[in-house]
Design a protein that fits this description.
11-stranded antiparallel β-sheet, 5 helices, 243 residues, 11 strands, Thiol Ester Dehydrase, Chain A, 2 domains, 39% strand
């Protein structure tokens, strides 16, 4: 199947103080759609790990937001693979409101991890043969380029990983990194700003028992972010743009 679409009603547990869908919940919704598509194509995490000792890992995600849906609003979410190279699949998402208006779009980059060696591996030919590229509409802009490095830490917070942060890959799920990154945005901005885009590069994995530090620095129209674990290893870098 080239793409899948689903209607989704925003639940009360997924909204913030403004009754809008939270960014971690939005990321979770996109991840759920990617999961459902992989199940349809018979390349889900469970099938890959059980039969081939490999698993999906998210390498990069950028989301552009015109507006966030409100509590009890129903939106239509669509996902498809827009391209593939030796190591990565490029997956798009669009979120459409009840009036047929696109309110959110995203591009993501997914690799395959050898679950024994714990490193990225090339995509086998048999997977390329069973995962079609969708080309019937203009793809979402493909995310690329580097994210600026922090040189002046302005906000810093600390977390300990918890059992419920861990997913079936036995490491911290990427939705948790999004949650931790958003915690490094000043409260005033969270209360009064409008998020235009969020861009995250996922570099390393974290496991149960790690101590996490999330940091941010203000730049023009936004913030650069990074998430570290106790040995100083960089887990995630990110950029949020606000108005």
């Amino acid at each position: 199947m080239d793409f899948i679409t689903e209607n989704y009603r925003i639940r009360i547990t997924e909204v913030d103080a403004h009754s809008q869908l939270t960014i971690p919940a939005l990321n979770g919704l996109l991840q759920e759609m990617a999961w459902r598509h992989s199940v349809v194509e018979k390349v889900s995490v469970h099938e890959l790990s059980a039969q081939h000792n490999i698993s999906w890992v998210l390498s990069r995600l950028k989301i552009w937001i015109d507006r966030l849906p409100n509590y009890d609003e129903t939106v239509t979410v669509k996902t498809y693979v827009q391209g593939v190279d030796k190591y990565f699949y490029h997956r798009d998402f669009t979120v459409i409101d009840a009036n047929g208006i696109e309110i959110i779009r995203a591009n993501s980059v997914w690799g395959l991890m050898d679950i024994i060696k714990r490193r990225i591996t090339s995509i086998p030919q048999w997977m390329l043969d069973v995962t079609p590229i969708y080309s019937d509409e203009k793809p979402v802009e493909r995310v690329s380029g580097k994210i600026l490095k922090i040189d002046n830490i302005e906000i810093e917070k600390h977390f300990d990983t918890r059992w419920h942060d861990i997913d079936s890959n036995q490491h911290v799920n990427n939705t948790k990194y999004v949650e931790w990154l958003m915690e490094s945005v000043p409260t005033e901005i969270l209360n009064n700003g409008k998020l235009n885009s969020i861009d995250m590069i996922f570099k390393n994995e974290s496991i149960l028992g790690d101590t996490i530090t999330t940091q941010s620095q203000a730049i023009d129209k936004g913030f650069i972010h990074r998430i570290l674990k106790q040995n100083g290893q960089e887990l995630v870098t990110g950029l949020t743009v606000w108005e």
